[in-house]
Specification:
The chain is an alpha+beta fold. Helix content is 20%, strand content 40%. It is built from 4 helices and 11 strands; from the N terminus they run ββαββββαβββαββα. Strands 1, 2, 3, 4, 5, 6, 7, 8, 9, 10 and 11 form an 11-stranded mixed beta sheet that branches. The longest helix has 20 residues.
C-alpha cells in the first residue's frame, strides 16, 4: 500500500513541507483538501446531497458527509481534486462545471485524530436531479441522501432535532435502493461549526445569484 504524502502548512497557511497522511492526522498538521458540495433545486427549494460514508471506512463509517471530498497529495494541484467526484460518486463533471466558493478551514478534533484542513471548496449545481446517475465507490461511499438546505441549517444550529433525508443507498447485494428516513445531527461527520456556517452562507449566496442569472 502506497503511503500518501501531503503538503503541510503553518497556522497562517504558509507552506512548510510535506508529511505522511498518518502523521498529519496524529499531529494535527494543516493540509489541503478538495470539497465539492452537490446541490439540486426541486420545487424552488435547494437540496444538499450528502454522501453516506461506507461501513468499510476506517474513520467515521456510516456517517453523512460532504458530497465528495478528499486529500490533495503533495504532487497534485487543486483541479486534480475533481477526481473525488468521479471516483466516489461516479458523476462526470469538469472544473468548468463547478463554482469556487472559497478556501474554508475545517477542524475535526477527536480522541484519535486531529484533522486540520485547508479546504478548497466548490459547488456543483445539478442541472436535472432526475437525470443524475450515481455509481458509488463501495470502499468509500454507500449512498447519497438529499436534505433541504434550510432544514439542514436549522438542524446544525440545533433549532430542530431531526430532518427528512431521501436518497439511494447500497443494500447487501450492492444494489441501489431508495430510502426515506429522518436523521439527527449526530448522524453527520462532526465538522467545525465555523466551517459549516461559512459553507452554508456561500452556498446560499451563489445559489441565489445563479437563479437570478
Amino acid at each position: 500500500m502506497n503511503t500518501e504524502i501531503l503538503k503541510i502548512f503553518d497556522v497562517n497557511g504558509k507552506y512548510i513541507g510535506t508529511s505522511t497522511r498518518e502523521e498529519v492526522h496524529s499531529k494535527g498538521l494543516w493540509h489541503e483538501t478538495f470539497h465539492c458540495w452537490l446541490v439540486s433545486v426541486v420545487d424552488h427549494k435547494y437540496f444538499i446531497h450528502f454522501q453516506l460514508r461506507s461501513n468499510q471506512k476506517k474513520d467515521y463509517p456510516n456517517m453523512l458527509d460532504i458530497s465528495a471530498a478528499g486529500h490533495l497529495n503533495a504532487d497534485e494541484s487543486v483541479p486534480d481534486g475533481i477526481r473525488e467526484v468521479h471516483e466516489e460518486l461516479g458523476v462526470n463533471v469538469s472544473m468548468e462545471d463547478l463554482i469556487f466558493i472559497g478556501n474554508i478551514r475545517d477542524e475535526i478534533i477527536q480522541d484519535d485524530i486531529i484533522d486540520r484542513e485547508l479546504g478548497h471548496v466548490f459547488l456543483y449545481i445539478i442541472p436535472d436531479v432526475s437525470e443524475i446517475k450515481y455509481n458509488f465507490q463501495i470502499e468509500e461511499v454507500s449512498g447519497i441522501m438529499m436534505i433541504e438546505l434550510e432544514s439542514f441549517e436549522r438542524l446544525w444550529l440545533e433549532e430542530i432535532d431531526s430532518v427528512q433525508a431521501k436518497g439511494i443507498v447500497l443494500n447487501e447485494k450492492l444494489e441501489n435502493i431508495e430510502v426515506d428516513r429522518f436523521v439527527r445531527k449526530d448522524d453527520f461527520l462532526p465538522h467545525d461549526n465555523t466551517y459549516i456556517s461559512k459553507v452554508l452562507k456561500e452556498l446560499k449566496f451563489f445559489l441565489n445569484r445563479s437563479l437570478i442569472n
